[in-house]
């Protein structure tokens, strides 16, 4: 019996709800589910509820939590199951309940729950990309090997925090020592030392459909980061004393040269296949590859997200220039998810679109 | 009798026209009114008419002016009233006829005309934001207090002109003396000396609906400024001798991290409430808060526009990722305005949507 | 007999196909033709076919080529004619078959084939702009005249390669000598030495409609270039040793201040008129002017594309904020082309929309 069959057992396919945690990309997921005519459940911490209460038409049930950790509690799990809820995971899930509890959550998830563990470790993440045959930046085994510009990332660095740049072994060592002193890491080996690829960032959004047996390209974005994207507006004499930071504040839309799209699709498909091999579970739902495009038009992937990225919020309601190649209707990721779940339910194949 | 009731007296609610001055955001306002099936009137200076004459389907009446100041003339006012016209004010109105005449214009305005006076003075503007409890950059009382990076703004600085950066009392003084010499100001105290918040700019677009009793978030943008957004493309050895300027040339779309949206909405709502207290008139229609988002995800608002901003032109015809959370149809600000006016007219509540 | 009448002779107006070469903007052109209900033909090199094979619903016929040069072969030309195919040219056509063969291709082209020759030479290109009365950067006759910042462009520089910046006669000479050594040019006089206008880039998309007798503004974009748009994210101490490159990787959407639109439209119209004078053939279809907007809001055009630019890919499926001013339906350039061809066929005027 597959994990999908076990976890949706007892569910009424005619009364499926889409459940989401109130942050990150919840609004577009709710709006997408409503557009597909599905019931929606919002799990939200009390202090954040007022955002969603301004959009009461987007949810049928709001489950207020005193703390995020309640997501994995028996009461909430039971409630979700009684509502025939399928949870759409975003970055919040693992952040709020931890890898262990996310993996074992007794609620059907539209996504591959085997990826949570891999995503929690920078080294496993990079290995997955390499195994998929996707070009990645060089990873240095130790500060001593550093012979060019590198970016050093602490584990669990989120939203752009916990990074630093360096260009010599000495600089890397000093940065790691500081990170240990500041309690960001306990052992310098927890950090990953990656070649800093010079080029421009581009983030690709995918959707792995089990019903359509394909990986769709649903959009792209560029991150808008504070303060680095503001520093460039300052004359050098003012900017030079300020240290850049890379905290993601928002996203800007983009399209890529058509000649690069084949590679982008192939990398996305190779990723999905490799995830299936690595986890033993099917890949499904939204995910993202995060790349630098070099001047020789190479795509080097330095990061991935095994679930929906916030950059997809750009396409709420309208879809992106890429979704219109697949659909003759506005199809943003939040709606795409609901479409897949709804069609699976209609076809009696719910167990295929969850893990 | 409310100002609204007085100013629309004699209007035929079944034959309302939307009037707009031909510049800034006129095209999207006209297109929105036509989409809602309303009659439209365009007030335009002869030399600019050729732009709009390329879109004759967007207006029912074009009133050509020899000079902008005719807007406030008896002939035009009478004509507008005879057409049952409601004027949608944008930056052009006060710029072309001045605060006094804009305030007293005997034509219904979809917006709060009490804001014109406040907007004309940098100090009153900042005070309004502070009164609303919205975090703002520190304002320095005199050059002597300056202890970090500051931006000095001349009154009525528009489209990015009349700003300069400085980082010491001496630099501020020198800049102000130059501004006096160049006739930009008569007294250094007319300028405002503001902390330069380091982060990234983000501009939020709102719509205050009286019929729906809510403030809607209609979109966001980043300004595209000449030459500052071009200088960053030059190697430092070429760029260092060029002084940056901040003239707004256009706008780029963006979305913000969902976790920041509650604050953005709360600030927008607090702004609307405070405007009502400060002016004694209801807030209504489009407006904008202009912010820097810091690396710690604080939003610091350094400016506002009490009426539609040109950044909303990004969403003409399609709406933004945020309007689709409220509407199941494309709803850009120009159409939103017309929808409100049309519904108010149908409900016999026209007086509520004008001042 | 016009070139149009001659080249479509024998075509069945009820069975017209839109043909496109598989790269650049093929996806949006195919999607647009399908939206208009037209038959589509894709010409594609075998190794690139897998991209399009992921979208089989977008084409009725895929003609696979072993090499691009087959496009101009008798077999393919005959096949295209037998399918009543009208070719939509993009940058790929001249790049793949050369100017001579593109000019003489015995297949109807929706565009002005007289432009191919002009576009192949930087000096003729700039002369056309000057003849149209469009403000352009100063062109220097020789390195000796250089008295400010200049950009030096090699002939056929594509996608941002083959450019360099300089600010003195000596630097220009050294750069040209290097270009000769590297085989980019044979004679330094093949390069064009252009004033580097300081401001921000903006690319305007037009569509010249013969049926509607007008030039439509269909959108705008900013190019996203590697590595120059990434360098600005590096602290100066890391960036200063890296040479910027300007390879186009993608595009970002923008809108322009409304007060600049009249100029943008006038320049676009003047361009179309001048092309007709210079080539003796009607201007038709998509094209682009590529400009810098200065802080004094002057628009200086430094380049053009006589056919569709890849920046229009931004608007696939949804149209741009500008297309909605003309149409009450989503109208991206790919669809606009098909609409014109379809309407011309229906009206028995096919010969007017091809050369």
Automatic annotation (TrEMBL), chains A, B, C:
Protein name from the UniProt record: 5-formaminoimidazole-4-carboxamide-1-(beta)-D-ribofuranosyl 5'-monophosphate synthetase
Names of the cofactor(s): Mg(2+); Mn(2+)
Annotated family: Belongs to the phosphohexose mutase family.
Keywords carried by this UniProt record: ATP-binding, Ligase, Magnesium, Manganese, Metal-binding, Nucleotide-binding, Purine biosynthesis
Binding site for 5-amino-1-(5-phospho-beta-D-ribosyl)imidazole-4-carboxamide: 24, 251
Binding site residues for ATP: 225
Domain of life assignment: Archaea
Record bears the keyword Glycoprotein: no
Record GO biological process: 'de novo' IMP biosynthetic process
Catalytic activity: 5-amino-1-(5-phospho-beta-D-ribosyl)imidazole-4-carboxamide + formate + ATP = 5-formamido-1-(5-phospho-D-ribosyl)imidazole-4-carboxamide + ADP + phosphate
Organism: Pyrolobus fumarii (strain DSM 11204 / 1A)
Record InterPro entries: ATP_grasp_subdomain_1, IMP_biosynth_PurP, IMP_biosynth_PurP_C, IMP_biosynth_PurP_N, PreATP-grasp_dom_sf
MF (Gene Ontology): ATP binding; ligase activity, forming carbon-nitrogen bonds; magnesium ion binding
């Amino acid at each position: 019996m597959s994990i999908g069959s076990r976890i949706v057992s007892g569910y009424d396919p005619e009364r499926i709800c889409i459940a989401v945690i109130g942050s990150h990309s919840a609004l577009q997921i709710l709006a997408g589910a409503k557009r597909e005519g599905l019931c929606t459940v919002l799990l939200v911490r009390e202090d954040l509820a007022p955002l969603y209460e301004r959009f009461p038409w987007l949810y049928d049930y709001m489950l207020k939590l005193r703390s995020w950790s309640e997501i994995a509690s028996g009461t909430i799990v039971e409630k979700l199951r009684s509502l025939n809820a399928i949870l759409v995971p975003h970055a919040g899930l693992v952040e709020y309940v931890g890898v262990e509890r996310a993996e074992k959550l007794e609620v059907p998830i539209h996504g591959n729950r085997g990826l949570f563990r891999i995503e929690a470790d920078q080294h496993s993440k990079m290995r997955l990309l390499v195994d998929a045959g996707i070009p990645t930046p060089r990873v240095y085994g130790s500060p001593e090997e550093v012979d060019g510009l590198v970016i050093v990332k602490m584990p669990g660095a989120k939203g752009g925090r916990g990074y630093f740049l360096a260009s010599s072994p000495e600089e890397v060592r000093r940065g790691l020592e500081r990170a240990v002193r500041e309690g960001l890491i306990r052992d310098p080996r927890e950090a990953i030392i990656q070649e800093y690829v010079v080029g421009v960032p581009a983030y690709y959004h995918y959707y792995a459909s089990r019903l359509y047996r394909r990986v769709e390209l649903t959009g792209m974005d560029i991150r808008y980061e504070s303060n680095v994207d503001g520093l460039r507006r300052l004359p050098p004499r003012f900017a030079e004393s300020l240290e850049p930071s890379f905290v993601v504040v928002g996203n800007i839309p983009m399209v890529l040269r058509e000649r690069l799209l084949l590679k982008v699709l192939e990398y996305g498909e190779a990723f999905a296949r490799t995830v299936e091999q690595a986890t033993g579970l099917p890949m499904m739902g939204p995910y993202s590859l995060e790349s630098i495009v070099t001047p020789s038009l190479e795509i080097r992937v330095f990061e991935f997200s095994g679930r929906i990225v916030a950059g997809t919020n750009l396409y709420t309601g309208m879809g992106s220039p890429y979704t219109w190649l697949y659909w003759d209707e506005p199809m943003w990721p939040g709606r795409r998810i609901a479409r897949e779940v709804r069609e699976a339910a209609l076809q009696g194949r719910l167990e295929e679109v969850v893990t």
